[in-house]
Write a structure and sequence with these properties.
The complex is a heterodimer of chains A (750) and B (779). With 750 residues, chain A is an alpha+beta fold. Chain A folds into five domains: 139 residues, Sandwich (Jelly Rolls); 146 residues, 3-Layer(aba) Sandwich (Rossmann fold), CATH 3.40.50; 132 residues, Galactose-binding domain-like (Jelly Rolls, Sandwich); 190 residues, 2-Layer Sandwich (Chitobiase, domain 2); 31 residues. Chain A is built from 13 helices and 37 strands. In chain A, strands 28-27-29-33-32-34-35 form a seven-stranded mixed β-sheet. In chain A, strands 11-10-12-14-13-15 form a six-stranded mixed β-sheet. In chain A, strands 16, 17, 19, 22, 24 and 25 form a six-stranded antiparallel β-sheet that branches. The chains are: A alpha+beta (750), B alpha+beta (779). Strand 37 of chain A pairs antiparallel with strand 1 of chain B.
Chain lengths: 750, 779
């Protein structure tokens, strides 16, 4: 009996230890889960909800919330702060007017969470210290501030076993709810451009599944434990690889299969094969490279939870050719889109101050917005009866108020095709946001009145539409910011078929950087980069845009020579002497003078403008910095080359992770972006190189391009043509006049 | 010779080919799209160049002139191409109709501007060719003076002028073609009384003057029919056609006939229409003494350009035509009501030549009232549109391409009524009607439209500034447009319908009054005024449309000033004098107390003369005194007239005497006519004096000033009219009191050599004597 108890105890201990070993804990600042640093809850009743993402593959054991707050000192003791999770109350505390600062520590049981977005709600009930029977619910002393940036959320979870279904690619393995970021390792049969291309395609598809969530990719020859892996290789290689790891599988044809990750662990100092059921091994295989590509594309496009089998043999894949400017949420000018197309479903605004709703879309980065055109909103909306006549629906564009609709019908009404014309010049290239912000006022207000708010509603229907007129495409380049906006110009065709990725070296870190960049670009376009082209040597095809990735010393000299920052044996660096950011608004006369100077300045053509000092120096590039440079291709007029580089491949890989940070992306602009690779990841951007134009305005492209680019040429051409025309026409007129006044010249005045 | 001709043709072909290539590039440069900043820079630089070229003497050189014009064309073409490709946006049926209408109106204006540049590219100024000494070598000439309902007095003066023409009398025959006394009219019970009276009077007048009198049976084909009737019954080699109010100078034939002797293929020599009296617009706005007259632009600039392209056309009067060529086409054409231009097209199409001699050798009368002006212009509009619709210069075989362009310009010009109405109403259509008619931001307007307008102003002022002041074209067109629109539309719908209507002339205006045709301008004024408060409201209510609101408001403001001027135009001012007094220059001598005192002529008419006497002696000139004066014209002929002093004004260095002629008999009257009208040099100097240019800014301010003055006058007149109608009989007494007061004050003014404005407060002023015209006083 005693022996049995001991055995049970040991086994339990092992189990607990194993469980403990398998459990993972993530602590994230709450600010990572919501965009607001500080939330102030006002009025007698207010609440704020944060969505806590719990991926499907987690089993939450427990979670721990630490919340810092401060409340008003004028609250009465009847005020309280309540914390709920998915409607269940976790904690409620009194808001103490004498001790206004507080910290709430709440242990949340794992059972309170479900896979998906869990509502963590902070609710306040606030009363003022007034002795009046009726208190003003909007009294300004009723507030409580939550310090989100000083609060944190810790979750203790264990991973579930990976279901051996290929559909788990869509909703289990690559889940945007996984935080803080996803991780994936590629194992390639060979490290050559063709296999890199396949890895890139798959990485692109996975990045799409991860949606807004960052994902870090690595490449190795061996399986990496603790993360999901993807094995890419021909049938024979894959079969052999798996066999060596204790998995007997027959791999034939264009083959996709999901396994639990075969790994190895030390047991009694010996390396033993072990199957990690918490992580997956996706096998992508084919008879030849063509089949492999088909398989890679198949896995990249699984956006629907099918199939449920653990394997798939792909017979055929038909991929439509994408049109230019058709990425995620990119609006094609000249077409009408319903709100539903743009992701805004029918929504009802309720209450006095309902939260606004945004209609977000992208305009192509190279759109030349004509100021005399109008974009049209056609609204289908309804609002309730009994609202006060000062109720309005405010419409803002990119934060600026542009118009409002007066909701002045006391009986409520429905509007269909309510047209609002918005001048196109109020829009900008890239992301635009139309915000619908209703202000609904109850008809009866007052102290001690029953204020009815249930009738305050406005529904905006998803069949409302938006039309942006067609416009030409023309933009001055280089502009690194456009890359981080929608991948322009490399993903002008969203599958990146018109771009080449040139990886200058084959070391792992550089390859990792390449895949991270692919993931980033995919997130910008919202379209898998199925037309990817990868090269390890200098590309022959000069018709495509070029992305160069590699440490600085591996980049060919001809590209370094053309770059704005010439990191050669003797570096040529431009130091701008006037900051390009935050420059003062110039008067029209000064702008004109500057424009004239820019046109006629002798140095304009191949040299930098006067705002930068050229320093030729022998110096080196540090290891704690990454560099992005964009410039015009020396071999293709109007073509773009972008270089992602650092001193070493380690720094390059670090940079490829750092640029996933939205703050870093926002800091990149111009043609040179220098990024600090240590926190706080400061970015220095300048534009010192030659300006060139990308886009198409008319049928004649080459001469038009030259004349636009070299503006002074236009004037020379104009005056030469006029001078010649005048001369020749004068000769013709002289002859004609002579004929006309034949025999009577003496009677014609000169 | 043949090889030289071949070489010339080959060179012309090569040059034409090069021109074609260069033009293609030129148009390509006009069409390249740039950013707004770049476009602004392009326009600014081109405008600066234009202004620079104007300043330098570069333009005196023909090459410089062409360079200048091409630069201006470049600016305009860039605007028009942008306008066509970027602003015609469909946003709804009504908006689009408005957009297209405005666009077509602008395109019409631009087309006229560009073809106008073509026409004026190298004007020809002809000098008179001396006639041979041997009279036998001179051609025979018939002078036709068609008349319908003009007063006898006017016709008589013209006949006297014709009689005085320097030309061998045996080679000259004068015919009075009276359509007012045709058999048809004499037999028609409604008109027979007047017709018979006219018949006898005019026949008698013709006989007394020794001219031929012709009248026909019917009034078929109006003026053309009248002339053709006489044409068949006469035989002069050349025919001089004069309107019955166009008094010829004595040297008219000396200045013109010589051209026919030089060019055997010449069918026409046209001379300018010169007018002594102001047209209603000049009179009512009082611009006659300051600005060039309306006709000066056509006769001192455009006809010279047309002559270069062998497209100078017959204007109905003051022209010599060769009978031989008229016979080939059966006389004057009568399918349209502008038979003159129609005849010219037919003869040009036969490969014949025309010439224009820019010396004023006739002196005529402008219509006196606004409605008579409209009658005249309606006829011209309908006639030229008829030519466009029925004949269509583009399709006429025989015309050269350059002639087609010239005639097309002349025909299409007359569609201005529609274009101008659109321009007047467009801003209101947007501001009040909410119709989007122009899709452009302020920055685009500044980059494209403003340079185009400025370039047009610069070109217009540079080449026509001394014959047409800035914005006067807009004023004239606006003043006529309301009434020409129905004419244009009706002619387009039924080109064969319009009928000839004679312009009434020689009317006397006894008092100031509001022309009944003025009502639409009040409506236009109200509509335009309404746009301003609407614009203010819209500015606040629709901030996103402020660009368009700003553009339309500025445009509306411009229209408002034009309409104000139109209100001034429709207030008809009375005409104190029977014959208009014209500025004149010359010397005279007064026989005073057996001495001869020199004087300088200041103004003259058939009724009187004004001159200044500068003398060291103390000479007293009083009203009522009679003297004899001796004068010579520029042709050397001496004249002697008796005068009576009507007014005497002391000047700084002498005294100005306003006198009336004392004419006792027919001979003296004829001499007077010869003196006043017989000297072409007098008209040349008159025109020269008025040929002065001003800047665009000054021109615009001048127009605003005249517009405000005119419209205030209009308003005062209407208020006075209303008050005095209410007061009824009182006004007569007021008038007497006023007249006494006026006379007394005038005497005081004479004594002190000060001009005193004599006017009563408005409520005491009878309507017929609202204000003294200082212009008229000085004449």
């Amino acid at each position: 009996m005693k022996k049995l108890l001991v055995i049970i105890a040991v086994l339990t201990e092992i189990f607990i230890l194993k469980a403990k070993a398998e459990a993972e804990v993530i602590k994230v600042p709450l600010i990572k889960l919501t965009p607001k640093k500080i939330i102030t809850l006002k009025r007698s009743y207010s609440h704020y909800t944060i969505k806590i993402p719990i991926p499907n593959r987690w089993r939450v054991n427990k979670a721990f919330l630490k919340l810092k707050y401060m409340n008003s000192s004028l609250l009465s003791e009847r005020s309280a702060l309540v914390v709920k999770i998915n409607g269940y109350i976790l904690a409620q505390i009194k808001l103490n007017p004498f001790s206004t600062e507080g910290e709430l520590k709440i242990l949340i049981p794992g059972s309170a969470f479900f896979p998906g977005y869990n509502d963590l709600t902070f609710l306040v009930i606030q009363h003022s210290q007034t002795k009046k029977v009726c208190e003003d619910p909007f009294s300004p002393e009723l507030w409580t501030t939550l310090y989100i940036d000083k609060s944190s959320f810790e979750v203790d979870y264990t991973l579930k076993d990976v279901p051996l279904r290929l559909s788990s690619v869509c909703n289990f393995l690559f889940d945007p709810k996984i935080f803080p970021q996803g991780k994936l390792n590629f194992v390639l049969e060979k490290t050559d451009p063709k296999y890199l291309k396949l890895a890139g395609i798959i990485a692109s598809g996975i990045s799409l599944r991860f949606d807004y969530r960052d994902v870090i990719f690595t490449v190795s020859q061996k399986l990496k434990s603790g993360v999901d892996n993807i094995l890419i290789g021909k049938n024979e290689f894959v079969e052999d690889f798996l066999n060596k790891r204790g998995i007997k599988a027959k791999i034939t044809g264009t083959y996709l299969k999901i396994f639990h990750l075969p790994t190895q662990v030390y047991i009694d100092s010996e390396l033993e094969n072990y199957i990690d059921t918490k992580h997956a091994l996706l096998v992508v295989s084919g008879k030849n490279l063509k089949d492999l590509e088909c398989a890679a594309k198949s896995i990249a496009v699984i956006s629907f939870p099918f199939p449920d089998s653990d394997r798939m043999i792909v017979k055929e894949l038909d991929i439509p050719k994408p049109l230019p400017y058709t990425g995620k949420l990119i609006l094609r000018p000249g077409y009408k889109y319903t709100f539903k197309d743009l992701g805004l479903l029918s929504h009802t605004f309720k209450g006095i101050y309902p939260l606004p709703k945004d209609l977000v879309f992208y305009l192509p980065s190279d759109l030349l917005i004509k100021p005399n055109r109008y974009a049209n909103l056609y609204l289908h909306f309804a609002y309730g009866a009994g609202m006060r006549s000062d109720s309005v629906l405010n419409i803002l564009l990119n934060g600026k108020h542009i118009t409002a609709i007066h909701l002045d019908n006391p009986h409520g009404t429905v509007y269909e095709n309510y047209k609002i014309a918005i001048p196109a010049y109020l829009f900008k290239r890239g992301i635009n946001k139309i915000t619908f912000m209703p202000v609904l006022t109850p008809s009866v207000t007052g102290i001690c009145e029953l204020i009815q708010t249930k009738n305050l509603f406005l529904t905006l229907f998803s069949d409302s539409s938006f039309y942006f007129p067609p416009m030409p495409h023309l933009v001055d380049m280089p502009r690194i910011e456009l890359l981080f906006q929608d991948g322009f110009p490399f993903t002008r065709f969203p599958d990146a078929s018109k771009s080449i990725f040139y990886i200058t070296t084959q070391d792992k870190r550089t390859l990792n950087s390449f895949l991270n960049l692919i993931g980033l670009l995919t997130k910008k376009t919202g379209y898998p980069l199925l037309g990817l082209n990868v090269e390890f040597k200098k590309p022959e095809d000069t018709d495509k845009e070029l992305v160069i990735i590699g440490p600085i010393n591996t980049i060919p000299a001809e590209f370094k020579e053309s770059a704005p920052l010439k990191l050669l044996a003797e570096n040529k660096i431009y130091y701008p002497i006037i900051s390009l950011k935050g420059s003062a608004v110039k008067s029209k006369i000064s702008q004109l003078k500057e424009t004239i100077k820019k046109v006629f300045h002798k140095e304009k053509l191949n040299k930098s403008p006067k705002i930068a000092v050229l320093s030729k120096q022998i110096s080196s590039f540090g290891d704690k910095k990454g560099l992005i440079m964009e410039f015009e291709s020396p071999s293709k007029k109007g073509g773009t080359i972008i270089i992602f580089t650092a001193r070493s491949s380690a720094a390059l890989e670090k940079m490829s992770k750092v640029i996933l940070n939205p703050a870093v992306q926002a800091g990149c602009s111009g043609d040179i972006s220098l990024i600090e690779l240590t926190s706080p990841y400061k970015v220095s951007s300048v534009r010192v190189g030659k300006v060139y134009y990308v886009g198409e305005l008319g049928k004649v492209s080459m001469p038009t391009y030259y004349l636009r680019k070299h503006f002074y040429l236009f004037f020379i051409s104009l005056f030469v043509i006029i001078a010649l025309l005048s001369l020749i026409i004068l000769l013709i007129l002289r002859k004609y006049r002579k004929k006309r006044t034949k025999n009577v010249e003496e009677y014609i005045e000169d | 010779m043949a090889s030289r001709k071949y070489g010339y043709n080959k060179l012309l072909d090569i040059n034409s080919f090069i021109v074609l290539i260069l033009t293609t590039f030129f148009i390509y440069l006009c069409s390249i799209s740039f950013t707004l900043n770049q476009q602004f820079l392009i326009s600014s630089i081109c405008l600066c160049f234009l202004l620079l070229l104007v300043r330098l003497s570069f333009l005196k050189n023909k090459y410089g002139r062409l360079f200048f014009l091409f630069l201006a064309i470049f600016i305009t073409l860039r605007y028009w191409i942008w306008r066509t490709t970027d602003t015609l946006i469909y946003t709804g049926a009504l908006d689009y109709i408005g957009t297209i209408m405005l666009y077509l109106a602008e395109t019409h204006g631009i087309f006229l501007y560009l073809t106008g540049i073509f026409i004026s590219i190298w004007p020809i100024r002809r000098k008179p060719i001396p006639l041979p000494d041997d009279p036998e070598k001179l051609p025979t000439i018939d002078i036709f003076i068609p008349t319908l309902n003009e007063p006898e007095e006017i016709v008589k003066i013209t006949l006297i002028g014709c009689k005085a023409i320097d030309y061998p009398k045996n080679k000259l025959k004068i015919y009075l073609l009276d359509d007012g006394a045709t058999l048809q009219k004499r037999n028609d019970p409604k008109t027979s009384k007047e017709a018979w009276k006219r018949y006898y009077r005019f026949k008698k007048m013709a006989e007394s003057l020794g001219v031929n009198y012709i009248t026909r049976e019917t009034n078929e084909h109006a003026k053309a029919g009248n002339i053709n009737y006489a044409f068949k019954r006469t035989d002069g080699e050349l025919i001089l056609i004069l309107d019955c109010d166009h008094v010829p100078t004595r040297d008219i034939l000396k200045k013109t006939v010589g051209w026919f002797l030089k060019d055997k293929k010449l069918f026409l020599v046209q001379t300018p229409h010169f007018f002594l009296n102001p047209d209603p617009i000049e009179k009512n706005l009082r611009t006659f003494s300051d600005a060039p007259t309306e006709q000066q632009m056509f006769y001192q600039a455009i006809q010279l350009g047309l002559d270069f392209w062998n497209s100078s056309f017959f204007c109905g009067s003051a022209a010599l035509l060769k009978r031989k060529y008229l016979e080939e086409i059966g006389g004057l054409k009568g399918e349209t009501i502008t038979e003159d231009a129609e005849t010219s097209i037919a003869l040009h199409a036969k490969g014949l030549n025309s010439a224009y001699v820019g010396i004023p050798v006739v002196c005529g009368l402008n219509p006196e009232t606004y409605d008579s002006l409209i009658t005249q212009r309606t006829r011209w509009t309908q006639g030229m549109i008829q030519i466009f619709m029925i004949k269509n210069p583009l399709l006429i075989k025989g015309l050269k391409l350059y002639q087609k362009i010239c005639y097309l310009n002349c025909c299409l010009f007359w569609f201005f009524g529609i274009s101008r109405m659109i321009f007047l109403l467009a801003p209101a259509a947007y501001l009040i009607g909410g119709i989007h008619i122009y899709y452009a931001s302020v920055s685009q307007v500044v980059a494209y439209a403003v340079p185009h307008v400025l370039a047009g102003l610069i070109v217009g002022n540079t080449f026509y500034g001394n014959v047409r002041w800035p914005f006067f074209s807009e004023l004239y067109e606006s003043a006529q447009s309301i009434f020409l629109v129905p004419a244009v539309i009706s002619t387009i719908l039924n080109p064969k319908k319009p009928s000839f209507r004679v312009t009434p002339k020689g009317m006397n205006l006894k008092k100031d009054f509001l022309n009944p045709l003025g009502k639409p301008f009040y409506i236009l004024c109200i509509i335009t005024l309404l746009t301003f408060p609407v614009a203010i409201v819209k500015w606040h209510m629709y901030p996103i449309y402020r660009d368009v609101i700003m553009i339309c408001t500025a445009w509306s403001l411009f229209n408002f000033f034009i309409i104000l001027a139109c209100l001034g135009i429709v207030w008809e001012r009375r005409q104190l004098r029977h014959f208009s007094r014209a500025w004149a220059k010359g010397d005279l001598e007064i026989i005073y107390d057996k001495r001869r005192i020199k004087g300088e002529i200041r103004d003259i008419s058939l009724s009187g003369i004004g001159f200044e006497v500068v003398s060291n002696e103390e000479i007293l000139f009083n009203k009522g005194q009679k003297f004899v004066i001796l004068m010579k014209d520029n042709l050397g002929k001496g004249y002697k007239f008796e005068i009576e002093i009507v007014r005497s004004l002391k000047k700084r260095k002498g005294v100005y005497l306003g006198c009336q002629f004392i004419i006792k008999n027919k001979v003296e009257f004829e001499n007077l006519v010869k003196f006043v009208y017989g000297d072409s040099q007098r008209w040349i100097e008159f025109w020269k004096r008025k040929s002065k240019s001003i800047s665009a800014v000054r021109g615009f301010l001048y127009l605003i000033k005249k517009g405000i003055e005119g419209s205030l006058e209009n308003l005062r007149g209407i208020v006075a009219e209303i008050i005095y109608r209410k007061k009824g009989v009182h006004y007569k007494k007021e008038e007497q009191t006023f007249n006494q007061f006026k006379a007394k004050t005038a005497f005081e003014a004479r004594k002190s050599d000060k001009s005193i404005n004599v006017s009563l407060p408005i409520w005491r002023r009878p309507p017929s004597s609202i204000s003294e015209s200082t212009e008229e006083r000085s004449m």
